[in-house]
Amino acid sequence: MSFYSTWHDVRALGIDDSAFIKSFIERSDVSLSALNDGNEQDIATVIQLLVALPEKEIVRMISCKDEITLLPADVPCFSTFSNGAVRLNELLEFAPEGLTYAEIGYQLVGAASQLAQIKYGENHAKLAAMMSLVTISDHRPANIRATALGHYLVALSYEEKAVVLKKLILRDPCIQAIVQAAVAGEANYRRVVENLSDSTAYRRRTSVRCAVEFALDLPEINNLLDRIIWDL
Q1: Radius of gyration (Cα) for the chain, nearest Å?
Q2: From residue 126, how far is each of 3, 13, 52, 142, 143 by CA, in Å?
Q3: Cβ-contact 168, 50 below 8 angstroms
Q4: Which of 78, 128, 167, 180 could anchor a disulfide with 133, C-beta 3.0 to 4.6 Å?
Q5: HSE, side-chain direction, 13 A CA sphere, residue 208
Q6: Among residues 24, 66, 8, which one has the least CA distance to residue 167?
Q7: pLDDT range class, residue 232, cuts 50, 70, 90
């Protein structure tokens, strides 16, 4: 049985599934395997499980983790959330062999220079990868391909996707660090990203805020948004 099938059965039996949630939010290899390479039934099970999984249980498990110290590379940067969360996988449906950063940047926004194409493509590919919608190869130029999950979600409406994506993006270390601080009482964005220069923290603030507000905009956890200080 796959990780998610077993997890689904454990929840159905009313057994404590904290170990599964922990493995999920820590992006363990076994939790990623089905998302990246699972068959249609595997992905259907993933969707069913994540739709039913209360966000507050994920937030509770994040709050129990050791305090997270971020590296600059852990802080997301992107221009348009929907281009990474939705549009990129739509493009990849026509390129099953994958696309480069430059090809993505050109197709998403028609960026004029190759440098702009590469930067835009990279930022939005990394956003998609945060949610396990794509994989990014180690070789250069990087090749970006849809995961099994990314391919499956293309057929769903945005509203159906969003329910799942909110839980997937909560695995991101930057969002987790802000959630940890908010659960504890107050999250100061500048303090969380203290390893960034002032100028970089300023540039990335809009991206981080967009991702955090997307993840936490749910009735059972949106009170945490009031505890986040975004001022620099």
Answers
A1: 18
A2: 24, 36, 26, 11, 12
A3: yes
A4: 128
A5: 30
A6: 24
A7: confident
| Short-list 160, 168, 144, 47, CA closest to 89 | 144
Q: Distance between CA atoms of 195 and 174, rounded to whole angstroms? A: 12
* Helix, strand or coil, per DSSP, at residue 146: strand
Write the DSSP string, 165-195: HHHHHTTSHHHHHHHHHHHHT-EEHHHHTTT
The amino acid at residue 141 is P
Query: pLDDT tens for residues 57-110?
Result: 999 999 999 999 999 999 999 999 999 999 999 999 999 999 999 999 999 998
Which amino acid is present at 124? H
Cis peptide bond upstream of 141, omega within 30: yes
Tokens 């997307």: give the residue: 214
CA–CA dist 133, 149 (Å, integer):
6
As given in the structure block, the two tokens for residue 213 are 């507000």
Any idea how long the chain is?
232
Structure tokens at 118: 């590469």
Across the strands, what pairs with 135?
145
Kind plus residue range of the DSSP H or E element containing 213: helix 198-216
